[in-house]
Write a structure and sequence with these properties.
Layout: H1 2-8, H2 14-29, H3 32-37, H4 39-49, E1 54-59, E2 65-71, H5 73-81, E3 86-93, E4 101-108, E5 114-122, H6 127-141, E6 148-151, H7 155-164, E7 169-172, H8 174-184, H9 188-199, H10 203-216, H11 218-226
Parallel strand pairs: 3-6, 6-7
Antiparallel strand pairs: 1-2, 2-5, 3-4, 4-5
Length: about 230
């Protein structure tokens, strides 16, 4: 709106500005409908040009899109050969025309950098979506000894892991818990001790930090105990 006023000397409404922006994006990227229609050919090309890549598209009886799964061949092979068997699970909102959720399974590599393992596009974080994603993930990576999942305590993730990876360990993300601590409890000293407890490798040291947290604020200690 400001550019049009400065460059053209014309004032336009919010609605017209938004419509012009959407039209320009469609000229550059194409429409959302066209993109969904191209998904099957995109997946076929991805598997043809990327040995070992795995893709799945789920549709309903009317051939309408439900889910997309994708895991690249090098990511799967790297996970089996050099990556520690720990997988972080999360989902984030998509902001396109049809909204939806991007589901991700990531790891940490030897340089402590994010290592992408698999992706899903679905409707929302619910039981059906997480079950479908983890079922496809299990098909992609197979059985892994001592596998660990980290997530934000979403109940749908917990149930899906328990069903599809019954022998895997799973725990809560320490950053997610720390954000909850900051939002619900105003005890900075307890926050600091929480991170020390979460990152220690020795049980006596862990117990000592937990006792200190209970001494500072029993409500914080009870919350962590429940977590």
């Amino acid at each position: 709106m400001e550019d049009m006023r400065k460059d053209m000397g014309v004032s336009i409404s919010d609605v017209k500005t938004w419509r012009a922006r959407e039209h320009a994006l469609e000229l550059v990227r194409g429409s959302a409908e066209e993109s969904y229609m191209r998904l099957p050919s995109y997946c076929a090309m991805l598997e043809a040009k990327n040995p070992g890549a795995i893709t799945h598209i789920e549709t309903d009886n009317n051939n309408h899109f439900i889910y997309l799964f994708m895991s690249l061949g090098p990511c799967i092979r790297g996970f089996h050969s050099v990556i520690r068997p720990g997988i972080a699970l999360d989902g984030t909102f998509l902001k396109g025309k049809y909204l939806g959720t991007l589901f991700v399974a990531t790891c940490k590599d030897g340089n402590n950098q994010i290592y992408p393992l698999a992706f899903e596009v679905g409707d929302s974080e619910n039981d059906a979506s997480w079950n479908w994603f983890l079922t496809k993930l299990r098909g992609a990576i197979g059985h892994i000894d001592d596998l660990v999942f980290i997530y934000d305590r979403h109940e749908s993730i917990r149930k899906a892991i328990s069903t599809i990876f019954p022998n895997a360990h799973h725990g809560a993300c320490i950053f997610h818990i720390s954000q909850n601590l900051k939002n619900h409890f105003k005890q900075e000293r307890a926050h600091s001790l929480y991170f020390r407890a979460a990152k220690t490798y020795h049980i006596p040291e862990f117990d000592r930090h937990i006792v200190q947290i209970f001494n500072i604020d029993p409500h914080v200690g009870n919350y962590l105990h429940a977590a």
